[in-house]
Design brief:
Layout: H1 2-16, H2 21-37, H3 42-54, H4 58-71, H5 76-89, H6 92-105, H7 116-120, H8 124-130, H9 138-151, H10 154-167, H11 172-185, H12 188-198, H13 206-219, H14 222-234, H15 240-245, H16 256-276
Length: 277
C-alpha cells in the first residue's frame, strides 16, 4: 500500500509540474511495484486502475480490474472504475451495467463522482436525476449545465455554467462552461480569449480534450474542434456511439475532415469491443 500511495503522489505532483517525466516514471514504477508485491489486494488494484484510466490507459486497467473482481466480487470501486474504462472505449451498455451494480453494492461509491455514461447514452434526464441534489460544486454544476445544454434548455444551462464559474473560475470544467455561456450570448472576443487559456492545462486528458472539441464546435471554430476531436481519440477516448448522437458536434458534421476523424473513432471503438467483449 505504501508503494501504491507513493505512486499516486508522484503522478499527482507530475501533473502539477506540467507532466514532469521524472515523477511520471517514479509514479508508474511505484504502482507497478505495488502490483508486483500484491496483485490481489483490491485497494492497490483500484488505485492503480484509477491512475491508468485518468492517464488515458483504460485498456490496461480493464484486465487488472477483472482479475481483482474474481477475488473480490463485491468491490464497488472496481465495478465503478470498470464502468469508467468501458465508457472511454465506447462500451456504453456494459458501462451502465457496471456503474449501476457499483451503486447497488455501495450507494456512496459515486459520492464525489458522476455517472457520465447516462449523459453519453443520451439519457439526459436520468443523468440529471443521478446528480446529488444537495451538493453544489463547480464540476457537478458544469455537468448539470452540459445536460441542460444538450436538452436545449439554454436558460438553465447558462445558470449552471455561471454558478460553476463563480465557485471555481480556475477549474477547466468551469472555464469550458463559461465559454459555452459566451457562445449562447454570442460574446465572440471573450470566447476566443477564454478557450486559448483553457486548452493548455487539460491538453493530455482525453475526455477533457473532447469537452474542448465540443466547446469549439459550438463557438463555430470548426478547425480547432476537429483538431481536438482527433486528439481525444489519439488519447484513447473513443466512445464513437456517443460522438454520433452528441448534439454539440452538429456544427462540424458537414466538414469533410469530420468523416475521416469519425471513421477512426469507429475503428477504435470496434477494436475495443472485439478485444474485451
Amino acid at each position: 500500500m505504501a508503494w501504491a500511495e507513493l505512486g499516486t503522489v508522484c503522478l499527482a505532483y507530475a501533473r502539477l509540474q506540467g507532466g514532469d517525466s521524472v515523477y511520471v516514471d517514479k509514479g508508474w514504477n511505484a504502482l507497478h511495484r505495488a502490483i508486483g508485491l500484491n496483485a490481489t489486494n483490491r485497494l492497490i488494484v483500484d488505485i492503480t486502475a484509477f491512475q491508468l484510466i485518468e492517464n488515458n490507459q483504460a485498456d490496461e486497467a480493464i484486465p487488472l480490474l477483472r482479475e481483482s473482481l474474481r477475488h473480490n466480487a463485491n468491490d464497488s470501486f472496481a465495478h465503478w472504475y470498470l464502468s469508467e474504462a468501458y465508457r472511454y472505449g465506447g462500451a456504453l451498455e456494459q458501462s451502465i451495467a457496471e456503474g449501476e451494480l457499483a451503486r447497488r453494492l455501495n450507494p456512496k461509491v459515486a459520492q464525489n463522482l458522476l455517472f457520465n455514461t447516462y449523459l453519453y447514452s443520451g439519457d439526459y434526464k436520468k443523468f440529471l436525476g443521478s446528480l446529488p441534489a444537495d451538493e453544489s460544486n463547480a464540476r457537478t454544476d458544469f455537468y448539470r449545465g452540459l445536460a441542460y445544454y444538450s436538452l436545449g434548455d439554454m436558460r438553465r444551462a447558462v445558470g449552471e455554467f455561471d454558478r460553476a464559474y463563480g465557485l471555481n473560475p480556475s477549474l477547466v470544467h468551469a472555464q469550458l462552461g463559461r465559454a459555452l455561456s459566451d457562445a449562447v450570448a454570442r460574446r465572440r472576443p471573450e470566447e476566443i480569449e477564454l478557450m486559448g487559456r483553457v486548452e493548455k492545462p487539460g491538453s493530455e486528458d482525453g475526455e477533457m480534450v473532447y469537452k474542448m472539441a465540443q466547446a469549439y464546435a459550438q463557438l463555430g471554430d470548426t478547425k480547432s474542434s476537429l483538431r481536438l476531436l482527433a486528439r481525444s481519440i489519439e488519447l484513447n477516448f473513443h466512445p464513437y456511439s456517443y460522438f454520433l448522437r452528441d448534439s454539440l458536434l452538429e456544427p462540424i458534421r458537414a466538414e469533410p475532415q469530420y468523416r475521416i476523424v469519425m471513421q477512426h473513432a469507429r475503428e477504435q471503438q470496434e477494436a475495443f469491443l472485439r478485444k474485451f467483449f
